[in-house]
Amino acid sequence: MPRIRHVLFTTVAFFTLVFVGDRLGATIMDRVVMSTRFRYADLYQGKLPAEIIVLGNSRGLHMFHPPAIRKATGRMAANISFNALPTVLMPSLWHDYLQHHSRPELLVYEVSCVNRMNERGALEGYTTFMGHSELLTRCIAKYKYREFVASQISHLYRFNSDLTWRSLFFFRSSDQDWIATGRVTDSQLDRTLDVGVEEILYSENNVSAAKEVLSLADRQNIPVVLIVGPQHPRYLAAVPELSSWIQWLEKELDRPILDYSAAITDHNAFADHLHLNPEGAESFAERLRQDGVL
Amino acid sequence: MYFNSLAFLAFFPCFFALYWLLRGSLRVFLCLVGSYIFYGWWDYRFLTLIVISTLVDYAVGRLLGESKSMPTRRSLLAVSILSNLGILATFKYFNFFADSLQVVVSAFGFSLDWPTLHIILPAGISFYTFQTLSYSIDVYRGHLQPERNLMRFAAFVSFFPQLVAGPIVRAHEFLPQISTDRRFDWAQFESGFGRVLQGFFKKLVIADSIAFVADPMFADPRGYSAINTLVIVVLYSFQVYCDFSGYCDIAIGLAKMLGFELPENFRFPYFATSPSDFWHRWHITLSTWLRDYVYIPLGGDRVSEWNTYRNLFITMLLGGLWHGASWNFIIWGAIHAVILVLHRFVVNRSRLTYVSSFDRAVSSTTPHPFVKQFATAMKCLTLFGVICITWVFFRSGTFSQAVQILSQIVSLDGLSPSTLQNRIPLLKTCGLVAMFVSFELTSKLSLSTYVVTRMPVARAFYYASLLWLIALVGTFSGTQFIYFQF
What we know:
The complex is a heterodimer. Chain A is built from 13 helices and 5 strands. Chain A is of the alpha/beta class. Chain B is mainly alpha-helical. In chain B, 73% of the residues lie in helices and 0% in strands. Chain B contains 20 helices and no strands. The longest helix of chain B is centred in the first third of the chain and has 38 residues, at 70-107. At the A-B interface, helix 1, helix 8 and helix 9 of A face helix 18 and helix 20 of B.
């Protein structure tokens, strides 16, 4: 009997230790992440006030560089796009932005994200911010149920994501000016084209998420500009169906989309086949100002 | 079934509970059924091979036990060797040898219309065939009494914790254990549980994090700078170690939880100070298998110096080939053979060489322990560098790719840290590896072992922190263990 009691006591004590440590560790991790200057830590603390808000995936991130927009227009911009940000998560982030900040003057929505297949791909990364958004949590529960359950069991698991590590990287300075540098080389382009162009997706989930973003903006009378940003001319030539996809999306959203996919032809403006480098982002911001978009 | 899968997470607790509820032959039967479910989870057809191997070696063992005639015994052994190696040759090496023969014949202007077998390599085939082979050889040599109970023998061949990726367990280590009912021992269970956690930590936190940054480079090394390539090559050496030793830790831990003791397969291999020392620490059960059943029967080191080198070479080539049907593994084995031979050659001429006289000076006359430690550290680091180079051949898809990776490093083209790709995951992975190395160092110095074994609270904290780290930085992509392919 004393042996069984010892075994039971040890087991219960161990699992209590694991549970308490998990919750304590998660609380500490949350404090640490929220004290960084990473875009979503700033978003959930109301530290991203801006006149222009940019939403999109990595293309939105690289094409609308806040320092470049400020330089071109003199207006304060904040970019809440991110690499591989799933389109289905965008309404939650946009909603949460509006909850924590005063109303911006313009939403720039880089809509090429709607044709991406990553609606589930990078979603689990956002468990890091689950404690700060009910909508985000619901979205993860809908599309990534296993990760959702795991993050309910272990709160530390919520911080097991690329976003946590990125947050720690931006401990002191904001990541709003982060953008890929360098210039794409011909051999890199050759390799990309060897692999083949990414398939264009006609996704209902993505379209309804985009509609939700627009209706949130409409409800607050925030003007929205829908844009397809520049792509490297060689890559663009390999994606002939892009324009028909844009027409399809215009119909679905019942809004005009500004097609800037061929707007930049300078090879040196690209960090890779789909992303502008700082120089490219600067000339693109200037072009948008001249066109009266920004 | 993978250890790092939800299926296993459901399977093991059920198996564990039933196992301790049953007794005697029912428990052995459960072991057998559980092991077959575990193995058949991938593809039930693979069970045929394991059953054939089991039946042949069981029958051979029984007949060897009854036969006194030397020619009959030799024939029986030949049956076992041919059937086991036949299975291996067909399922693992046939296409490789056929392709190689095709290349050689076509070099002379001929062509062979050789068939290609479209078969999947059954997981862990090299492990269990070596296990059953050693049984037959041991019975033939009279080192082991043949097992009379088929169920116990089948459970030995298919024991699920170590079935797929080792350690390679010899019959004399396992059969006596399964012949008697294991008794539940809390201390053994606890240490097994800790070992399992340690294994999962190595696999999920270290190995799979490295895989995330290393796999893209090994898939296409073009465009990586010298520093980037070098860092990834060094990281890969930790990946392969943590992946394989992590599996063995889980296997040994699970076996402990079921009351069994399995042999150790690793003993801090990267702290080895010489090539032979490395093979006494790396994949110990394969090294000792090759030593006992290949190297020593060839004459070992009881023959002339040059014949000893030949024996070493053959053993290491076979060791390389055991890993996989590819020239890269043979080259990997050959490089290790050359390193072992060179080291032995230098040691044999110790009086004439600088290295050994330095060793001697360090070990016998140097008064200050720091100098000795420094020299040992230098030897470890040098050997580690050499081992890292050999891993490039082990991991690369082709020989030319391995050469490309090494020439990228040697070219010194791009030494600035700014040329590192995927910087944040790479930094994170380097941090995790640094943590692991310090963990290994404290374990080697027996500091952590001392604290963990003596203080129950420290032990609980240690196990809990492994769980926390797995939750926080583990990779849950269900990546296959590297050694499953062998």
